[in-house]
Amino acid sequence: MVMKKRVFQQIASKRLKTIILEQDSRLKSYIPKTVWYRDDQLLSMLDKYGTVFVKPDKGGGGVGIIRVKKGKRGLVECKSLKHHKIVPMDQVHSLIDTYLKPGHRYLIQQGIPLAEINGRPFDIRLMLQRIDKDWELTGMAAKLAAPGKIVTNFCKGGKPYTAKDAVIQVCTSSASQKMIELKKMAYCVANALSERFKGLRELGIDAGMDDFGNIWIFEVNTRPTYGMFRKLKNLQMYNKIRKNHKLII
Ligand SMILES: Nc1ncnc2c1ncn2[C@@H]1O[C@H](COP(=O)(O)OP(=O)(O)OP(=O)(O)O)[C@@H](O)[C@H]1O
Ligand SMILES: [Mg+2]
Description:
binds magnesium ion, D-amino Acid Aminotransferase, Chain A, domain 1, alpha+beta, binds adenosine-5'-triphosphate, 6-stranded antiparallel β-sheet
């Protein structure tokens, strides 16, 4: 029996991937400020940005992510998939400590106020694959957060939505330009990461967009799932991704 050689590579650490992207001058402005979780960093990041996302360095599917938001009268709102509490600022650390899993490292990331469609925040998943040398952007779709959720993940009820239609609602007349910018960004991310990690074959970029149409890279998955593309009306992207995936794995 001929065994297929597994040449693809995965990078679990969000921090490591972020550092590599931050070092690229073309990508730097797309990366929300990200630091390791520490009590003093939480206070200074909250002071600076008002809202921050605390997330496991090695996690996925939105699991363990906490949105921490400064409110009025010294109160702070902490919301995750499981918890929702409002506490005075001096109790934030002890509350968050109860949410963090022992033995895991966490990051604090500048919170981005995502643009919304029908009151649901969305971000955009860009899927890149390479069979040989060159990367190809094989999928691009928005995902609308399930009502009331702080994450847009498909596995957490996020609703796939045509990317162009989502971008048009934020950027109206400059939507075509924005689509080009998103695509350029995606290829740039793929080249920057694969220069450092030679074995990468598939990437799933999660990119947010704020009300001004600014693009923000939240995370790059090196083991992206693609089930969400099956939910789009047009299955062209899904079929292409699946065909490539079978050749890669
Ligand atoms: N800094 C942020 N500001 C606003 N929303 C964010 C931020 N970070 C994450 N989110 C929301 O949470 C979702 C999940 O975050 P992220 O992609 O970083 O982690 P994950 O999905 O758990 O990891 P993976 O993508 O590896 O599965 C994002 O798609 C986005 O909707
Ligand atoms: Mg994600």
